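Thought: the user wants the 3D structure for the chain below. I'll pass the sequence to the structure tool as-is, report back what it returns, then summarize two notable features.
Action: structure_tool
Action Input:
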Amino acid sequence: MEKKFNDIKKAGIAGILGNIFLLVIKASIGIITNSQSMIADSMNSASDILASFMTFIGNKISSEPKDEDHNFGHGKAEYIFSLFISITMILLSLKLLLDSIKSLIQKSHFEFSYMLIIVCIITIITKLTLYIYTKKMFKKYDNILLKSNYKDHKNDCIVTTFTLISILFGLLEIYWIDGIVGIGISIWILITGFGIFFESYNVLMDVSLDEKTKETIMNLVKEHSDIKNCYNLYSTPIGYKYFVVFTIAVDGNMSTYKSHELANHLEKDVEALDKIDKAVVHVHPVDM
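Observation:
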C-alpha cells in the first residue's frame, strides 16, 4: 500500500514540474506574439499544475490509515480533490471560451514566430512522456486522480497539436484559425471537466457497484450449493474500492458454526475481487 501512494505521489510531482515548465514557456511566447491559441494552451497548463497539485494533496490524505473517526479510511479524499480539479477546469474553459470568441469577433491576429512551433513540439513531447508514465501508474493502481491526470496529459497532446496547426496557418497569414482553435481548446477542456465532475460526484453520492461486478458476486454465491438464496446486496464506495454487504439464506437445520464458516469463505471470495475492499455476509436460516 505504501508503494502505491509513493508511486502516485511521484506521478503528481512529475506533473507539477512538467506543467510549470510548460506554463512558463507557453505563456511567455503566447503573450509576446499575441497568439490566442497559445495563451489558451498556457492557461490549460496552469489548470494542469493545479490538477497535479490536487493529486499530490489528495493522495496524501487518502493514504492515511483507518481510524476511530474514519472506519473505512480516507479513500474518498481522492474524489473530493478530483471534484475540485473538474470545477477549476470548467471555470477556466468558460473564461478561455469568451476570450477566444472575443478575439475572433475583433479579428485579432498574432505575430508569427518559429518559437511558437518549437514550444508546441516541446509541449507535445513532454506531455506524451507524462501521459505514458501516468497511464502506466493508473493501470497498476486504478486511481481516479491518476485517471484524471493521464486523460489531461492526453488531451494536452491533442490540444497543442491543434495549436500548432493554427500557428502554421499564421505563417500563411490566415489568422482567424487561431481564434477557432482557441474556442476548440476551451470546449475540449469544458467537456473533460464535466466528465471528471460526474465521475467524482457519483462516488461521493455513494453510487452502487456496476452490474458486471454484482453479477460476478452472484456467480460466486452460486458456487456454494448450501446457499439457497441471496438478496439485499448493498454497496458503497470507499475510495476506489467498495464495501459490500448482503444476506444469504441457508437451511435452518444447519449448525451455527457451519453457516458462519460458509459466510466467512464467501466473504474471502468476494474480497478477492479487484473492486472490493470489504465484504460482510449476513446469514438467514430458513425452513426447508
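Final Answer: Structure generated. The beta strands are 227-238, 241-251, 276-286. The chain has two domains: 2-204, 211-286.
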